[in-house]
Amino acid sequence: MSKDNDELLKLTSYVQISKYREKTLKSIGDEVKIPTNIAKDSGIRTNHISKVLSELKSKEIVECINEEARKGRLYRLTDTGKDVLDVINDKEKKEKID
In this structure, which topology does domain 3-97 adopt according to CATH? Predict the structure, then answer.
């Protein structure tokens, strides 16, 4: 396994050990969203979403595209975040088949 692949697996594990992180990633998906919409879609309180987004941002899994805004910050998955979500979704598809 390559070093990049190992890093992807570590990040995937980091996301999967927290249902909040996993739900947040799935909620964002291919879209650009504000924390309030992520909270509504995932069923998680907004204050928890803010903490989760901060954690995911520190791991470069999500990015804020308008940091200067005090309200209505927009978040999207980074390329790494998309790769992590793909691994999670592929694993879930495989588990449904098995």
Answer: Arc Repressor Mutant, subunit A (1.10.10)
Tens of pLDDT, residues 27-80? 999 999 999 999 999 999 999 999 999 999 999 999 999 999 989 999 999 999
Close Cβ partners of 66 (under 8 Å, ≥ 6 residues apart): 72, 73, 74
Return the domain boundaries, the chain.
3-97
Distance CA 14, CA 30 (A): 20
By C-alpha distance, which of 73, 88, 79, 91 is closest to 23?
88
Structure tokens at 70: 């005090």
